[in-house]
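Internal tracking record. Fields below are filled automatically when a chain is submitted to the structure queue. Please do not edit lines marked as system-generated. If the sequence contains nonstandard residues, flag them in the REMARKS field before resubmitting.
Queue: standard
Priority: normal
Entity type: single polypeptide chain
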Amino acid sequence: MTECEESRKVREGFNACSHAPNAEERVRILDQIGNEDSVIRLEIESLLEFAIEFPENLTGDEFDLDELEADELIGVKIGGYRVERLLAEGGMGEV
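SYSTEM-GENERATED OUTPUT FOLLOWS
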């Protein structure tokens, strides 16, 4: 699996878990992911722990980063960072 594919699976799993209606559904999703790849499950669990510990940094629709354009992230706080501006864009995405 390439790093890009792994990142996509982590992002999709995190989004699914963060939108799960309850803890049981979140565990079911994590169990399904863990059966396929335990490393990805651990990464998702780490992101979920961060989101629980620092809910002010990632709330509401901000979990759906796939759905946002780069300019929509300006001003969003992610962890200890705040997106200030678009730096560059190219064939692999935007920074």
